[in-house]
Amino acid sequence: MDRKLFTPISIRNLTLSNRIVVAPMCQYSAVNGSATDWHLMHLGQLSISGSSLIFVEATAVEEKGRITPGCLGLYSDENQKALSKIIEFVKRYGNTKIGIQLAHAGRKASTQVPWKGGTPLNQDNSDSWQTVAPSSESYNSNWPLPIELNEEGLEYIKKCFVKSAKRAVEIGFDIIELHMAHGYLIHQFLSPISNKRKDKYGSCFENRIRYPLEIFKAIREEISTDYPLGVRFSATDWVENSSWDLREATQFAMKLKALGCDFFDVSSGGNSPKQEIISGPSYQTGFASHIKNKVGVPTIAVGQINEPLQAESIISTGQADMIAIGRGMLYNPRWAWHAAEVFKKECAYPPQYARAHHSLIGLPIPGNPQSK
Questions:
Q1: CA-CA distance, 183 to 223, in Å (whole number)?
Q2: Has residue 364 been placed in a domain?
Q3: Residue 367 lies in a domain
Q4: Is residue 247 part of a domain?
Q5: pLDDT, average across residues 44-48
Q6: What share of the chain in percent tops pLDDT 70?
Q7: I need a surface site. Which of 92, 180, 185, 296 has the fewest CB within 10 A?
Q8: Eight-class DSSP state of 239
Q9: Are 235 and 266 in contact (CB under 8 A)?
């Protein structure tokens, strides 16, 4: 049987060696938005994992766009310098391409890190800040009200996205993904749960998708025509009677395709505490499959994809073009190596680790050569 998981794929000018992607995973370990040695360790080890692409965690395009005070940003020269160090390491030692997920948290910003509860920061806390959103609608009753963005605020954030994208290209990221999922700012515009505006950016579907499309278009026009740019979006809110569902998500994907979107990373949920998610192995793959078949753009499937045979089945049956693994990679950073062993396929690994690879055990050790 012809296996597909370890076949290459191209996205514009970028060729990936296999279909295994490391999903963006927040580490909540930045200082003033700048990457630290933790990120160097975290991303460095994943860059030698044999996966074809790793995404840096959701990276804020302005200071107030961070989810927590510990979240990454790419809005200052200091942020750019710190991430450049990561890129230099990956390009020198890694065997993977590296991308970045640009984001703005909107009304879900200014929160505690997960191990301190993940709840909104007390507004008297010096680390907290005023959040913004499409409408003055809080995420939950015990969350602070965000300020509704006016036209000046909308234009400012759009420019922040463009500036951060240009910084990402400048320091050597291979690919950019815009975060329009999980209840963060751009998703807040897409969904009627969070978007109660009465102007041209709210109410009907065409108005709710207007600002997200404007951000995408502004970035697409500012970066090279051969540079890969994609979007992660939620395919549904998982809330009964909410119109943001797979039907609207598919129509939105069609609009993005027309503007030059190169790939879709299809997730779901995150915009309401009322969501009722039906989860399980590969539970979001059906959304990715629908988008792929209806829109005809390379698609990434995510969500509880943990086993090699499971991943291979998704790719070989045409449900998605790539699979992204998050928590599974934290637990087993050598996931791709082990999958390659299952299918007897080649997978990149650093020469420094060669003696750990099953096919190379027994190589001579300097100063202690093998006996004849």
A1: 26
A2: no
A3: no
A4: yes
A5: 96
A6: 96
A7: 92
A8: -
A9: yes
Would you say how long the chain is, in residues?
372
Confidence at residue 351, expressed as pLDDT on a 0 to 100 scale: 86
Look at residue 365 and tell me if it is in a domain. no
Q: How far apart are CA 99 and CA 80, in angstroms?
A: 14
**Mean pLDDT of all residues in 103-112:** 98
Q: Which residue has the tokens 């979107």?
A: 261
Active site residue 93: no
User: Do the Cβ atoms of 235 and 268 come closer than 8 Å?
Assistant: yes
Selecting among 28, 184, 227, 349, the annotated active-site residue is 184
Tens-place pLDDT, residues 150-197 = 999 999 999 999 999 999 999 999 999 999 999 999 999 999 999 999
C-beta separation of 289 from 266 below 8 A:
no
- Output phi, psi for 102, to 5 deg: -90, 135
152: CATH: 3.20.20.70
Residue whose token pair is 């951000």: 215
pTM of the entire predicted model? 0.95
Rg over alpha carbons for the chain, rounded to the nearest Å, is 21
Mind listing the pLDDT tens digit for each residue in 362-372?
566 666 665 55
Count structural domains, the chain. 1
Q: Which structural domain range is residue 33 located in?
A: 9-356
The number of beta carbons lying within 10 Å of the beta carbon of residue 259 is: 15
